[in-house]
Specification:
The complex is a heterodimer of chains A (about 550) and B (about 290).
Chain A lengths: L4 H15 L1 H31 L7 E5 L4 E11 L5 E6 L3 H4 L3 E5 L3 E5 L5 E5 L4 E11 L2 E5 L1 H51 L4 H35 L2 E6 L5 E5 L3 E5 L6 H17 L2 E2 L4 E2 L2 H32 L4 H13 L4 H24 L1 H7 L9 H25 L3 H9 L4 H29 L3 H6 L26 H10 L4 H37 L5
Antiparallel strand pairs in A: 1-2, 1-5, 2-3, 3-4, 6-7, 6-11, 7-8, 7-9, 9-10, 12-13
Chain B lengths: L8 H4 L9 H6 L7 E2 L1 H5 L2 E12 L2 E12 L3 E5 L6 H8 L9 E9 L2 E2 L7 H6 L1 E4 L10 H5 L1 H5 L5 H14 L3 H4 L12 H13 L5 E5 L7 H14 L4 E5 L3 H7 L2 E6 L2 E7 H6 L4 H7 L5
Parallel strand pairs in B: 1-11, 4-9, 4-10, 7-8, 8-9
Antiparallel strand pairs in B: 2-3, 2-5, 5-6, 10-11
Helix pairs in contact in B: 8-10, 10-11
Classes of the chains: A alpha+beta (about 550), B alpha/beta (about 290).
């Protein structure tokens, strides 16, 4: 032991650095910071997104200037001097021209929560807030008084909604089907004309067939008309009269009311019921009101379909390319250059892929397909089939975008397969392809799955290229549905990530859309997480099966 | 044989003290004749290595190796690290073809068929040999599929044939009793020694003409090593075995013939008892008794 104290102190400092205590703190701190940011972001999205559909109380404010306003408090600012102001969702846009309004605390004389205050979600025109007064059927008054009218509404509304839904389904599905038949017949005429000439017997036959189908369709339409008229007449005249906070009287047709609830008298379980019902609508219904209300089912469907098709396209393509690069290509400057080029592809801005997808897939490939196979449609109504954005082109574009990720990670996985396994296989008399197929690929599969997971996560959250190659603000015809041939790769579709942009930044009523944005984001993150968890589960199984835990 | 037989070792007497040290000559880059005992030549050979040279790029790794490998016997290759034992072994089944910079001259013949002939199909050639590597390398599949791998790649799918070969090979590799109840489980769950015996089972499943063992015990503990050595004893007679080893005791216990290599040259080659008890060269004696290397 040295007796010189200064030397001992210095060596103690040196020992601290040597033990790496500082490095533990630095690395751990960086990880903690990253975790805090990720958890903070996810937590914010989840907390905001989950709360959107929870029914909040309606407050009746009496203001100093004598106005009375019925609204839902959505935000509150606290001023440093003790005063504050609140943002109320006042609804009733057609009466006031506003959806939301700020009120200073000083303005507010009293704030009460009357039991019969009602929130109404309508098909059009946004929300309505008011007190029910009378239940009407034409001129006839079915019930009078807040409670009686509400009770009457609650008993009749489900039946009215059922009739409305049936009429809507007839309009959308049955009439859509008839229109498709009519269009197919018309296209058959054009095809016959293109193939055999305008005077040919084939064209005449097709024209006759079209006429017959047109007659059939007209007959079917008349039947449908009868049914929808019947349904709509049954709903007509049924209305609920409301008094707004300021006392105006408004009659809402019952068929226009999607859902109504009286938040101030709901018990916890009732609130939960409303909450679940609104989530149900969100997940399973079509959007209303420029996507700012209703559901996002077409977008969920579109997102999942596109991500899965993209994965199906990119996986074989990327894996085969990586196989050649790692197993067959001879090492040299060309291979190295190709590898660098692939790595650089991952850095190309995604909008460039979108532009390429539009120019090449939609216009060149899609245009050629239209010329070759869908010429009648092109001639008949100038409508491209494949020559415009669609699910297939969007999936292909994203497959291209995520290809570098898959190639690079597959190469990593292949190079991680021990050479001793390849040699063992060759020594058994296996050919190169047998070795790759039976030994190398199974062993590399978990690593390849990792690349695919990364690619799916990246692709599912991409917006910019999709705007160019097939994602639309509203596309209610699903790209995969029950209509023959079930998969419609040429159809335009909706996508959750694009919906975030559209609802959040293109909506006329952005304040009301804000909670929807959080909910959609939450949903998108949840879907990506679900896809990833599924892929990770598969990877875990493969890893247990093919990769040793020994050594 | 193309080279003249050397004198009978017993007639030559004890190692000559006055001649220059052959290993020093080799280390200086010179050539020395290989001492191949007469008894090696008298046994029928399964594999003949004839004036074989091999280069990795510009570096020559094997120099004029000429040695017959006796039929149905165990032949051990010994020598210090880097002397070319494994390279020679991997040249027999042409695994070195996979290394891009390798160049060879000379010839090898498996039961008379020239291995390096242009018309020789490498895949078919490898099917006639079995090889076991330093580290156990079971494939990522079940024990059963590991054993019948060579048959599978030949397209054999009759269950009865596969079952029979699997049992026979596992019995031959002394693994049947341990593995018979878990044939469907992953081979990666076996212990290191079991994995190596599985690799031997895999190598003998296709009835190879030669079995190549590349230091099969170097990654194993003493008990597993003992089992593999016993196994090699049992394989003697049924298979022709060419085995690389670092372990002198292993060579003396398990092999019928021993070849001593140094820096890519064959120095002395003869019956194991002669090599270990009365070698022709004092260099060999020095090595096998542990005074050198």
């Amino acid at each position: 032991m040295s007796s010189d104290p200064s030397r001992r102190r210095r060596s103690a400092h040196a020992a601290l650095a040597a033990h790496g205590e500082a490095w533990v703190w630095l690395t751990g701190g960086c990880l903690a910071l990253a975790m805090a940011m990720i958890i903070g972001l996810l937590g914010y999205i989840v907390s905001e997104g989950v709360a959107t559909f929870w029914p909040r109380p309606l407050e009746l404010l009496e203001l100093a200037d004598g106005r009375r306003v019925l609204g839902e408090q959505t935000a509150r600012d606290q001023a440093p001097d003790g005063g504050g102001r609140r943002l109320m969702r006042t609804a009733n846009f057609e009466l006031t021209g506003k959806h939301f309004e700020w009120f200073d605390d000083a303005q507010v004389k009293t704030a009460t929560t009357p039991a019969s205050a009602t929130v109404v979600e309508r098909l059009e025109g946004g929300r309505f807030h008011g007190f029910p007064t009378r239940l009407l059927h034409g001129e006839e008054v079915l019930a009078e008084g807040a409670d009686a009218a509400w009770k009457g509404f609650e008993t009749r509304h489900p039946e009215v909604r059922r009739r409305w839904r049936e009429a809507w389904r007839i309009d959308k599905q049955d009439r859509g089907e008839l229109q498709r038949r009519l269009r197919a017949a018309r296209l058959a005429v054009v095809r016959a004309e293109l193939n055999s000439g305008p005077e040919s017997p084939a064209r005449a036959a097709a024209a006759a067939a079209e006429e017959a189908i047109a007659k059939e369709v007209a007959e079917a339409e008349r039947l449908l008309d009868g049914r929808t008229t019947e349904l709509r007449t049954a709903n007509d005249g049924l209305g609920l009269e409301f008094a707004t906070g300021s006392g105006e009287s408004v009659v809402l047709p019952m068929a226009e009311i999607v859902r109504a609830w009286q938040p101030n008298r709901l018990s916890f379980t009732d609130r939960l019921g409303v909450y679940v019902a609104r989530w149900g609508e969100f997940l399973w219904d079509d959007p209303r009101e420029a996507n700012s209300a209703g559901g996002v089912f077409p977008a969920i469907w579109g997102t999942i379909a596109m991500t899965l098709i993209m994965a199906l396209l990119v996986a074989p393509f990327g894996v085969l390319a990586a196989l050649y690069l790692r197993e067959y290509a001879s090492r040299g400057p060309v291979t190295a250059a190709v590898r660098i080029a692939i790595n650089n592809l991952a850095g190309v801005p995604s909008i460039v892929y979108g532009a390429f997808g539009l120019g090449f897939f939609c216009y060149v490939v899609g245009g050629s397909i239209d010329e070759l196979l869908f010429r009648p449609a092109l001639v008949a109504d100038g409508q491209p089939t494949f020559g415009t954005g669609g699910l297939l082109w969007a999936s292909l574009t994203l497959a291209l975008l995520t290809l570098p990720v898959v190639i690079v990670s597959t190469e990593e996985a292949l190079s991680a397969v021990p050479n001793s396994m390849r040699e063992g296989s060759y020594a058994c008399g296996a050919s190169k392809w047998q070795t790759i197929r039976r030994i190398v690929l199974p062993r590399a599969l978990p690593g390849i799955m990792t690349g695919l997971i990364l690619a799916m996560a990246r692709g599912a959250g991409e917006v910019a290229p999709l705007m160019l190659v097939g994602v639309k603000k509203l596309a209610l015809d699903l790209p995969i549905d029950g209509t023959f041939p079930f998969v419609h790769p040429e159809r335009e579709f909706m996508h959750l990530a694009y919906l975030i942009y559209d609802v959040g930044f293109q909506s006329p009523n952005s304040q009301a859309a804000k909670p929807m944005v959080f909910t959609i984001t939450f949903l998108l993150v949840a879907i990506i997480a679900l896809l990833n968890v599924a892929a990770i589960w598969i990877r875990g199984r493969l890893r247990r099966r093919y990769v040793s835990q020994q050594f | 044989m193309s080279i003249p037989p050397s004198a009978d070792p017993s007639a030559q007497g004890p190692p000559v003290g006055g001649s220059p040290d052959r290993l020093a000559v080799v280390a200086a880059g010179g050539q020395v004749p290989a001492e191949v005992h007469e008894r090696v030549r008298q046994t029928p050979a399964v594999l003949e290595i004839d004036r074989f040279n091999l280069w990795y790029g510009v570096k020559q790794a094997l120099h004029e190796i000429t040695m017959p490998i006796p039929y149905g016997k165990v032949t051990a290759l010994v020598g210090p690290s880097g002397c070319g034992k494994s390279t020679l072994l991997r040249s027999v089944n042409r695994l070195n073809d996979l290394v891009p910079s390798v160049r060879i001259s000379g010839e090898m013949r498996l039961n008379g068929d020239p291995i390096y002939d242009k018309r020789m199909d490498v895949i078919e050639l490898r099917k006639r040999m079995g090889m076991v590597f330093q580290r156990p390398n079971p494939f990522p599949m079940s024990i059963y599929e590991n054993v019948v791998y060579a048959l599978r790649i030949d397209g054999e799918s009759r269950r009865a044939v596969l079952d029979e070969v699997c049992e026979k090979s596992l019995r031959g590799a002394a693994l049947w009793d341990e593995a018979k109840d878990r044939l469907g489980e992953s081979a990666l769950g076996l212990s290191g020694g079991q994995q190596q015996r599985l690799c031997i089972a895999r190598a003998i499943a296709a009835e190879p003409e030669v079995l190549l063992l590349d230091e099969p015990c170097s990654a194993l503990d003493p008990i597993a090593t003992g089992k593999i050595e016993d196994l090699v004893q049992e394989l003697r007679g049924r298979y022709s075995v060419l085995m690389v080893t670092h372990n002198m005791q292993q060579a003396s216990r398990s092999s019928d013939y021993t070849a001593f290599m140094y820096l890519g040259r064959l120095i002395e080659y003869g019956p194991t008892t002669d090599i270990f008890t009365k070698p022709v060269l004092r260099e060999t004696e020095a090595y096998v008794t542990g005074r050198f290397g």
